[in-house]
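Q: Here's a chain of 151 amino acids. Please give me its 3D structure as tokens.
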Amino acid sequence: MGDDLTHAVTRGLCRLLWHHGLAPLTEVPLPDGHRADVMAVGPDGRLWIAEVKTSWDDLRFDRKWPAYRAWCDLFLWAVPVDLAPALEAETFLPDATGLVVADAHGAVFARPGRSMPLPPARRRALTIRLARVAATRALRLTDPGLDGAAS
């Protein structure tokens, strides 16, 4: 997540999720080859994915976001305040997707998402994937010279 605004929205989103008891992780690779901007697991085991958007063009031309809904119990958009009204368009499924308005200091839930529970086997596989990604990143922080990758 390269630019400053994207980083700010992501930071605010992660802070909000953390304060609501979820454990967020950024840039999580999914089994279908896509990468979730933020994936979080709640204390109840539910998996959330948030797609971070910071410009109208980025939002309008993104065709991959519907695929993320197959990999989470709840899908959220995370945007800066000026982009929030665009997410009310039917194209972005306002009745099914949550909306978070964020900046670098925090965020608020502007619209709750609708939970669509994952099948148990998929939830288990994704939870293991999330745990492995997080553990690998933590290990690389403590041992940056670590060679190779665990599969």
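Q: Can you summarize the key feature?
A: The mean pLDDT is 93.
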